[in-house]
């Protein structure tokens, strides 16, 4: 089982301002969708609420495992398995991913800690026949999940920006870059790079 952290960060590790991204990069949104569809995603309550505000629903074709210490609704359950909602697999590239999309069709699970959320997400991945849990924010969830992370999918935005949310200092220590795709600036879209970093076997 792989635990991946997915984040877009400026050169100075800023990831947000006033609850939103400091940039708009359509290619990064597609990249995020491709990485996360068909998997369980772990996210904080505020991130979940911001997604609900933008989309009017949780992230589709993913089981959303939300971390919140506050009282929360009942977990979504179906006959297909805990934390899943009936749905149809999308065209996501491979039979395994398509099967994962069917199993991770947009249900919501609530857990009171990052550790509990990761354990729940791993169980959901195994039940779905998939093997990558995706941690998608916000900053507090990233910080608490880092000790458990095996892989980082980083969109490095080649800007230095002001913001009120950033990744922890030294957060990439212990990870090694294994792939990189550089994308030049185009119009209002800043130059950015898609990196994959992995922690050596422990």
TrEMBL record:
Domain DHFR positions: 2-199
GO MF assignments: dihydrofolate reductase activity; NADP binding
Pfam families: DHFR_1
Protein name per the record: dihydrofolate reductase
Keyword annotations from UniProtKB, A to Z: NADP, One-carbon metabolism, Oxidoreductase
Top-level taxonomic group: Bacteria
SUPFAM superfamilies: Dihydrofolate reductase-like
Record EC number: 1.5.1.3
Region (Disordered): 65-104
């Amino acid at each position: 089982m792989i635990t991946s952290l997915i984040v877009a960060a400026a050169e100075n590790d800023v990831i947000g301002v006033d609850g939103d991204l400091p940039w708009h990069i359509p290619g990064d949104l597609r990249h995020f969708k491709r990485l996360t569809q068909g998997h369980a995603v772990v996210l904080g309550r505020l991130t979940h609420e911001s997604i609900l505000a933008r989309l009017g629903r949780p992230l589709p074709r993913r089981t959303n495992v939300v971390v919140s210490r506050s009282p929360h609704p009942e977990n979504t359950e179906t006959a297909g398995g805990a934390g899943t909602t009936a749905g149809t697999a999308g065209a996501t590239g491979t039979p395994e991913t398509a099967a994962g999309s069917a199993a991770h069709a947009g249900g919501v699970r609530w857990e009171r800690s990052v550790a509990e959320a990761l354990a729940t997400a791993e169980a959901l991945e195994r039940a779905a026949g998939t093997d990558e849990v995706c941690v998608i924010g916000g900053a507090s969830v990233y910080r608490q999940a880092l000790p458990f992370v095996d892989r980082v999918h980083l969109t490095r935005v080649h800007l230095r920006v002001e913001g009120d949310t950033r990744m922890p200092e030294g957060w990439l220590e212990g990870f090694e870059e294994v792939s990189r795709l550089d994308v030049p600036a185009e119009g209002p879209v800043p130059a950015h790079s898609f990196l994959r970093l992995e922690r050596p076997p422990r």
